[in-house]
Amino acid sequence: MANKRACVVVLGDVGRSPRMQYHALSLAKEEYDVDIVGYSGSTPYSDVLFSSRISFHFMKQPPMFSHILPKFISYFLKVIWQTCFLAWILLWIPKPNFYLVQNPPSIPTLPICWLIARIRRAQLTIDWHNYGYTIMGLAIGPNHILTRISYHIEALFGRFADLHFCVTKAMSQDLQHNWGVRAITLYDRPAEIFQPVSLSEKHELFLKLGKDYHEFSSSRPDDTLLTERFADGQVRLREDRPGLLISSTSWTEDEDFSILLDALDEYELNRSVNSSDYPPLMCVITGKGPLKSYYSNIIQAKQWQHVEICTPWLEPEDYPKLIASADLGVCLHTSSSGFDLPMKVVDMFGCGLPVCAVGYNCLGELITDRENGMIFKTAGDLADQLLNWFHGFPRDNEENRQFYRRNLKVYQNLRWHEEWRKIALPYLSSTN
Ligand SMILES: *[C@@H]1O[C@H](CO)[C@@H](O)[C@H](O)[C@H]1NC(C)=O
Ligand SMILES: *[C@@H]1O[C@H](CO)[C@@H](O)[C@H](O)[C@H]1NC(C)=O
Questions:
Q1: What pLDDT sits at residue 135?
Q2: 306 lines ligand 1 (CB under 6 A)
Q3: Topology classification of domain 199-412
Q4: From the CA of 383, which ligand is nearest?
Q5: Keyword annotations for this protein (predicted)?
């Protein structure tokens, strides 16, 4: 049989595109040679980076046209630039059996990949993460001429593809209903690295973090804020430890961070009155993005006694460990289209961590309220959930917290590659 080859295209930072990296890894595991085309930036997972079957082809970033030219013109120049580089790379790399393209962005990705796929007689598969035009609509307004052009291009070339995957049932139904596109729902699943960790791994992680962030250290060099090591070498969680809350964010407009801050305000107040009922909280927020310094200033101005916020920079391999060490996750993701699910909750569930998340229409495909997580609308709801969760922590009310963790066991057992093999592989391998 001829050798199997796939080309994965993402017109964005490959390192920040976990799902396309998972696709590439799974293809490589099934003996495909994979070319990944995209932008460099964040470091991809080391499994992807060092796989002998996966090659990277990075595109050159367009110059900052918008610094010197009006928005409209700079947008067109950027698209032309991307078109040239993308087409050049796609024509130059070996012919694949199929192109697997992330949408969004849709422009110029969909038209170019469609054209090249036809020229090279390969199949075109779109992985719908969301709609490009709704994201554009958030930035420049839903009725802007560019948003409308974008809508028509996405609808037209979206329909031309041979095969479609998408991230939720809601999205699959919407694609079918609006554009007559039949997409197979392939849920995000946690990768293997998102696992529970042992007590000694937690201890090592906090010792390491304590070197850069004094919040995690303790007056005794062998102890940390949350763990202690006894003379016999045994590591235990401290009885007087704070609750560890974790949230990861890309610090953008579409995540309203003030909800969490308001909820923490309320927690602070309640704890200051009834301090024996609740632990202090350590809230760790990871991620980088445009609004980080804006919120850092607000956080610094808070004079909390019982709540501390830390925004550490983490090595990629420490992020899963930190999630696995936390007591509760918070997710502020809302969806521009209402059709995608937050990957960070998938990762948290992989580690067995229950989550409080802002509700929106299709979130029920991932979180069942009061079974494996809690869904909130307002800061007041979130504050109530935090107070309820941490009431009596760590000793009392442990059954409640264990109930949620038990309910995640089934979810934890089904991993990305297994799901991908079952759902995606049969379709992809039939396109040869
Ligand atoms: C303190 O606890 C009491 C009884 O548990 C409750 O009625 C009261 O509302 C609490 N006050 C605050 C501010 O949390
Ligand atoms: C928190 O404090 C408010 C008043 O400050 C009170 O009404 C509320 O009942 C308290 N919540 C809990 C869970 O104690």
A1: 86
A2: no
A3: Rossmann fold (3.40.50)
A4: 2
A5: Endoplasmic reticulum, Glycosyltransferase, Membrane, Phosphoprotein, Signal-anchor, Transferase, Transmembrane, Transmembrane helix
